[in-house]
Design a protein that fits this description.
The protein is mainly beta. It contains 2 helices and 9 strands.
């Protein structure tokens, strides 16, 4: 017969404040093996929009450059962003260069949302976000 200690609820301490991106295991009333992945966490105040542009347009973008990202259904859209990171080389398979722009804290953007990014000079692409880092690739 299970003891009260066996059936007690236990809390899990996360290494930082964040949100659950994905739950991997339902553990209600069960034991799980040590080191089982239970949740994927992310810090909603440190999301980035990762996108790629064709190599012929990539040289027009520079770090610190202002961008606009329009997310369907997000209040305050388009968002003003700054280009914060650029991959050093084109992807050999696609001929595209990957960039990142930081998203403002407390934005209503959710992982998986689609964005349209605009920069001056005009570079426009439609992006599908897919990971906790808001990875996005132009279609």
């Amino acid at each position: 017969m299970p003891t009260q200690a066996d059936t007690a609820e236990h809390s899990i301490q996360a290494p930082w404040d964040g949100s659950i991106a994905r739950a991997h295991a339902r553990v209600e009333g069960r034991e799980v093996a040590a080191r089982t992945l239970l949740f994927e966490l992310f810090d909603p105040n440190s999301l980035v929009l990762r996108f790629s542009v064709d190599g012929s347009q990539a040289q027009a973008l520079v770090l610190g450059q202002r961008l606009q990202a329009r997310f369907d259904g997000v209040s305050g859209s388009p968002l003003e962003l700054r280009l914060t990171r650029a991959w050093p080389a084109l992807d050999p398979e696609t001929g595209r260069r990957v960039f990142e722009a930081g998203l403002p804290a407390q934005t209503d953007v959710a992982i998986g949302m689609v964005a349209r990014v605009r920069a001056e000079p005009a570079i426009v692409g439609q992006l599908a976000a897919s990971t906790p880092l808001m990875e996005a690739m132009s279609t």
